[in-house]
Design brief:
Blueprint lengths: L8 E7 L2 E8 L4 E5 L12 H7 L3 E5 L18 H15 L5 E6 L1 H12 L4 E7 L4 H7 L3 H6 L1 H5 L5 H20 L9 H11 L4 H12 L6 H4 L8 E8 L18 E10 L2 H4 L1 H12 L1
Parallel strand pairs: 3-4, 3-5, 5-6, 6-7, 7-8
Antiparallel strand pairs: 1-2, 2-4
Helix pairs in contact: 2-3, 7-8
Pfam family, one: Abhydrolase_1
GO molecular function: hydrolase activity
InterPro entries: AB_hydrolase_1, AB_hydrolase_fold, Epox_hydrolase-like
């Protein structure tokens, strides 16, 4: 479906001095869409109109550090607890009469998994796109195969160098990653890429977004993840199997930790499954939310 931006409302909310931008559309049960790295609310351009047409109210934020949201300084500002608290603040500020469905892709998926553990009262259903449960990711880091796929996470621990590499030649590395990742020709148009470049060009944006990875490896940051609590709400994991960053073996969460999960694999989709195979993703999403 085509996104009609004239039907979107651009809004801001604030938590602990950090202003968060989000787009909102539709009426009905609340669905919150959390984008990944290095993206923005616009990554959900195919899902927003489908959800609105199906009778849902959609909120799609720019995660802190991204696009029009504030970019607080310091690695600690991007600790997982700060990110999940932002999601809680968005839901509470929405005035929704019931708990929300939360949908997360990539880093947004990581935030969504942790949000489900920390704020179960605010969550009705959970949808994850190409992001392993935190415990599965930790297990993956113990294998040479996943470590090779995750090389960039360790490169991002360097100070300043990743930012310099990423912005070289008008963000060529990031543009090529988004352009070449999808299996579907034309999944990422030049006009789409221009939206991402504008987001990366915001002052402080590159450092802020890379700080997600730096915060992830800070001492103590994985303490809660190593002993995760159960997620009892219904969970749908959608997994594009041509994922160059995450092994397909990471898709299914431990049933003892996530007893009500279903995994839907899409063989001809990449890591960016939400715009690579949007019709299939929308079908799965709407069937699950009904």
């Amino acid at each position: 479906m085509t996104l009609d931006e004239s039907k979107l409302s651009h809004r801001f909310t604030e938590r602990s001095g950090v202003r968060l931008h989000y787009v909102e559309a539709g009426e009905g049960p609340l669905v919150v869409l959390l984008h990944g790295f290095p993206e923005l609310w616009y990554s959900w351009r195919h899902q927003i109109p489908a959800l609105v047409e199906a009778g849902y109210r959609v909120i799609a934020p720019d995660m802190r550090g991204y696009n029009l949201s504030d970019k607080p300084r310091g690695v600690g500002a991007y600790a997982i607890g700060e990110l999940t608290a932002d999601v809680a603040a968005l839901i509470e500020a929405s005035g929704a009469e019931r708990a929300a469905a939360v949908v997360g892709h990539d880093w947004g998926g990581g935030v969504a998994w942790t949000f489900a553990m920390q704020y179960p009262a605010l969550l009705e259903r959970l949808v994850i796109l190409n992001c392993p449960h935190p415990q599965k990711l930790l297990a993956g880091f113990r294998t040479a195969r996943q470590l090779r796929k995750s090389w960039y996470m360790f490169f991002f621990q360097l100070p300043r160098v990743p930012e310099l590499v990423a912005q070289r030649s008008d963000y060529a590395l990031l543009r090529e990653a988004l352009k070449n990742d999808p299996q579907r020709p034309g999944a990422m148009s030049d006009d789409d890429l221009a939206r991402y470049v504008a987001s990366w060009s915001q002052p402080g944006a590159l450092t802020a977004t890379i700080n997600y990875y730096r915060a992830m490896f800070r001492p103590g940051s994985l303490r809660g993840i190593s002993k995760p609590t159960r997620v009892d709400v219904p969970v749908l994991v959608i997994w594009g199997e041509h994922d160059r960053y995450l092994g397909a073996e990471l898709a299914a969460p431990d049933p003892e930790l996530v007893p009500n999960a279903r995994v839907a694999r899409i063989p001809d989709a990449s890591h960016g499954v939400l715009y690579d195979r949007p019709e299939r993703v929308n079908q799965l999403l709407l069937e699950f939310l009904r």
